[in-house]
Amino acid sequence: MLSAEHAEELRRALVALEAVVALRLEERCAYAIRTSDPRQAGQALLGRPLGLPGTEGIPGTGAYAGDGPLATLVRQCPLSAAEALTVVAAVAPEIDEKFAVYYSLLSDRPGVAHLTGEVVRTLTARTFPGRLAASELLGPHGRLRGMRLIEMDAVDAGPLVGQVRPHRDLVALLTGGTRAEPELSAGFPATRLQTAHTMADLIVSAEARRQLTAALDRIRHAGRVLDDWGFARRHDGVRGTLILFHGPPGTGKSMAAAVLARTAGRPAYRVDLAALVSKYIGETEKNLAGVFDRAEEEDCILVFDEADAVFGRRTEVSDARDRYANQEVSYLLQRVERHRGVVILTTNLLGNLDSAFARRIDLQVEFPAPGVAERLALWRAVLPAALPVADGVDFAGLAERYALTGAEIRDAALDAAYLAAANGQVVTAGYLVSGIRAAFAKSGRTPPPGKG
Ligand SMILES: Nc1ncnc2c1ncn2[C@@H]1O[C@H](COP(=O)(O)OP(=O)(O)OP(=O)(O)O)[C@@H](O)[C@H]1O
Ligand SMILES: [Mg+2]
Predict the structure, then answer these.
(1) Tens digits of per-residue pLDDT, 376-409?
(2) DSSP type of residue 178
(3) What is the rounded distance in angstroms from the CA atom of residue 243 to the CA atom of residue 344?
(4) Residue 137 near residue 143, CB atoms below 8 Å
(5) Domain end marker among 334, 366, 398
(6) Is residue 362 domain-shared with residue 376, that is, in the same domain?
(7) Cα of 290 to ligand 2 centre, how many Å?
(8) In this structure, are residues 249 and 407 in contact, taking their beta carbons and an 8 Å threshold?
(9) b/e code 51-66 from CB counts within 10 Å (16+ = b)
(10) Torsion angle of alpha carbons 345, 348, 350, 354, nearest 10°?
(11) Which long-range contacts (CB under 8 A, 24 or more apart) does 374-380 make?
(12) Do 333 and 212 share a domain, yes or no?
């Protein structure tokens, strides 16, 4: 909910917007005849000048004073007078639909009943230079879109013909709603990583644990080192942290990423590469830019699983597609370098990573296939305390005999637990071996011969 004071700030902005609408309608009426006869309307448009003399006739940025969300936004971005009015105009119909009707009156195109880029131009400018500036403001490189304050529908008829919508975060900010958590969407192709695990559940080598602790320190103490102690002011490119987890499948890389985020108290998102990589030229970069921008805003950790798929080696250029793929990797390289947050990459194939990329990695953690001692620890760690296990199961023997990864040990234990549940019994060595055989079969290997 907005406080009374902040609601008043918004009300004042809408009143000011309405005054601008009235002024523009007056200006239009001086030239346009409201008629259904297209020839008469055409005549009226011919009489309308491309610009008027004088100033734009909109409230200056001084009109957004105080410490409310709108004034803070105008000050911090900072927004120009035209940008601030655009933001208010985009949000206005969310509060009162009469603004949508005003916008239809301000459009020369029939059938428009919402804010368009053209209507924004009409609202924010009346001089010729002002109209030029407004066209640029709303163009593809306009700041308002870059800052994710507004979104514009792309239409064939022209860059300013499409509908202008407020970004949902902007609506939440100005109307006092809570800011929505990012969720999987075209603009944010990522899913939240949640985990039941803590650092204590991770069975890794002493070296890996050291590196993970160092990663945690970077996440936790970035504010002190970069801001308070000034590293970010003193150096370029130290804002972000790039962490690489590498090792065979099922060794706990994804688990470790989620555990790190949970321990540091930050949300983590796994970027959905399939949704991100588009076959359309330019789209992938746009999608990536959206993800990185949002992650910076929300201060969340980005996880790229199977990173070699996107951060892979640039190939020899043999056709346009290759050149394009290389261009994407280059874009990623520089975007990651600029990123003011934590990125975790996981990969099975270290050698497949682009070498320019490898140089930028701040911390590298290896997750080797577990040895006998780790396998025993894994067997103990994966079994929940309430699981009934038959007396005398030789876990040390299982660890010794079967070279399984953490994920396989978990799967085998789960299989055994279901077998026990279905048969109304406790987990026996036999059920465990049956689960282990299934795990071997799943990866196309044969278990060692002999007993079991
Ligand atoms: N080192 C480990 N310590 C504790 N549990 C583990 C470990 N490795 C795997 N596990 C168990 O196996 C599950 C799956 O592992 P995870 O998905 O993290 O492996 P991964 O290395 O990301 O595999 P992939 O390379 O196939 O993505 C974990 O959630 C956890 O239950
Ligand atoms: Mg994984």
Answers:
(1) 999 999 999 999 999 999 999 999 999 999 999 9
(2) P
(3) 5
(4) yes
(5) 366
(6) no
(7) 23
(8) yes
(9) ebeeebbbbebebbee
(10) -60
(11) 374/203, 374/204, 374/205, 375/399, 375/400, 375/402, 375/403, 375/404, 375/409, 377/203, 378/203, 378/406, 378/409, 378/410, 379/409, 379/413
(12) yes
Give the environment of ion ligand 2: residues with CB less than 5 A. 253-254
Specify whether the CB–CB gap between 311 and 332 falls below 8 A: yes
254 lines ligand 1 (CB under 6 A): yes
Q: Are residues 60 and 207 in the same domain?
A: no
Q: Find the 341 Cα to ligand 1 centroid distance in Å.
A: 24
How many CB atoms neighbour CB 180 within 10 A?
10
**Domain range spanning residue 417?**
372-442
Nearest CA to ligand 1 atom 29: 255
Cα radius of gyration rounded to whole Å, the chain: 30
Q: Which residues pair with 312 in a beta bridge?
A: 353
Lowest mean pLDDT among 63-77, 231-245, 275-289, 358-372: 275-289
pLDDT, tens only, 58-102: 999 999 988 888 998 898 778 999 999 999 999 999 999 999 999
Q: Which of 255, 347, 375, 382 should be mutated for ligand 1, with most atoms under 8 A from CB?
A: 255
CA 238 to chain centre: 21
263 C-beta closer than 6 A to ligand 1: no
Amino acid at 84: A
Give the distance (Å) from ligand 1 centre to CA of residue 275.
Answer: 23
Full-model pTM = 0.63
**Contact by Cβ (8 Å): 331, 281:** no
Of 366, 391, 413, which residue sits at a domain end? 366
CA atoms within 13 A on the CB side of 36: 0
Distance 301 CA to ligand 2 centre (A): 15
Question: Please, what is the end-to-end C-alpha distance for the chain in angstroms?
Answer: 64
